[in-house]
Amino acid sequence: MIFSNLVRKNLLIIKNFVASNRKPILIFTITFLAELLVIFILIKINGTEIFFRGDGQDYQNLANNLINHQMLAITPLPPYWPTSFRTPIYPFWLAFIYLIFRSYNAAIFIGAFIFALSAPLVYLIGREVFTEKIAVTAAFISGLEPWALFQAGFITAEQIFMPIFLLSAYFLCLYLKYSKTSHIYFSSFIMGIAVLTRPAALFFIVIFIFLALIVELKHSFWKSIKVSVLIFFIFIAVLAPWLIRNKVVLNSLQFSSASGIRSFADSVMLQEYLGKTKPGEAIDIYKQARQLVGAKSDYDLMTRYSYLRILMAIFFLI
What we know:
The chain is built from 16 helices and no strands. By secondary structure, it is an all-alpha fold. It has two domains: 23-247, no CATH class; 258-317, no CATH class. Helix 11 runs antiparallel to helix 12 (221-250). The longest helix is centred in the C-terminal third of the chain and has 30 residues, at 221-250. The chain is globular, with a radius of gyration of 23 Å. Mean pLDDT is 82; it is low at 305-318.
């Protein structure tokens, strides 16, 4: 009797949820089905291997090393050097899926499912900021955009980054509309998780703080300062374990070495474009950069030395 009442109660909750969220559910369903169609077409043409190319191989290595060696190392073979090149959320996500299903192939479909949540989140954001018609149109455009459908199954951090990022943006919109500070606090917390998934969102917190200063200033100057400081500390608290790990393991407070690598690679291409070096001379540039920042190896250069020191090296080389 108690069990049947509990079942009926849960079914009623589900029924009410579906009834009150028909549009977001419909948008999600259509998006996810379209993603599955593209995934099955790609599998039929290329097999599942296509989803593990590029970044996918790096993330698979990281997940394997987490499972087998309990460290975030990107190298597939020993020696397993810890790195900050990839931030931790997605490798842990992949490792979790592998431990349950004993296969990374499951991550293709689970990731696509999570990625499909981006479309209804776009709808919810659009509904708060614009009209219903614009919200629905934006949701379908974002969900059914060809490149997004093509990438949905690929083993990359974007699979879970986009829904997390958009959820943070949704709570930011709620804060701007209703001025409820709990919304901006929750938004900054989620943004911290998004940054640990992909560092590209790292400096968005500056926008959050700036908007909070403006919104809260109408109440009082000190409240605007208090809210802004709390936003910053909530964000930093989420990132703190990763920053501490980098300092302890790598002796660096750099958030991710990817920024330094990208800047250095761009400098190499720039020098080739300017005619200062030839493609075969790139190795000499790496040698000079190691000397300028004091790195003992290319590994040290790309995993331990700060973005600022890499930029300084580039400046002197150019």
